[in-house]
Amino acid sequence: MCYVMKPIVISEITYRKMNELKIELFSKRGVQYTFDRLIRESIGLPPDEVDARKRGSKTYFILCDNFIKVGSSDDPKSRRTLLQCGNPYKLHLLKVVEEDIEKEVQEKFYHLRTNGEWFYYDDKLKEFVESI
Q: How many Cα atoms sit within 13 Å of 49 on the Cβ side?
């Protein structure tokens, strides 16, 4: 079933207020907040630090059906939990590497990229993940 929404007319004052709220929501103490941080705070997890890469983050591989997410985090288990909140399919933390090799892996398998940090989990990528 589809619903058709009527267009909403927003006054300039309302638009400015919305932007002020957006700025307040996404900026605290001059630090840009990411969507993940907002989710972490909303479900009661401690917020991440300013930049995970500066803290020696780990590279994780999260499997979802025929796709794999290659990312980095200082806490891959919590990252999987956050991703699971918005995903109807079961996510599996397949592997964690104790160093940040995220960019290298993403560049090596760029041809398998589907969206963002998600890649088709083909035989070559599977072999690579098992070998590290």
A: 10
Predicted TM-score (pTM) of the model is 0.59
120 assigned to some structural domain: yes
Which residue, 81, 53, 67, is CA-closest to 112? 67
- 109 and 79 in a single domain? The answer is yes
Task: Tell me the pLDDT of the chain (132 aa) as tens digits.
Answer: 344 444 444 455 555 555 555 555 555 444 445 555 666 666 666 655 444 444 558 999 999 999 999 999 989 999 999 999 888 999 999 999 998 899 999 999 999 999 889 999 999 999 999 998
Backbone angles phi, psi at 69, to 5 degrees: -100, 130
**How far is residue 51's CA from residue 69's CA, in Å, rounded to a whole number?**
20
Is the CA virtual torsion 90, 94, 122, 68 positive or negative? Answer: positive
